[in-house]
UniProtKB/TrEMBL annotation:
Keywords: Membrane, Transmembrane, Transmembrane helix. The chain crosses the membrane at residues 6-29. This is Small hydrophobic protein. It comes from Campylobacter jejuni.
Amino acid sequence: MLENPISNSIIITTIAVVLAFSALAVFLIKKTKENK
């Protein structure tokens, strides 16, 4: 098994983007509920 730092960094970046997007979505949902 050869290590591939490029694919590893892509996976880490993808996970980070997904987590950031999820956190932003939750924040917007909570903010919208507070406004109602």
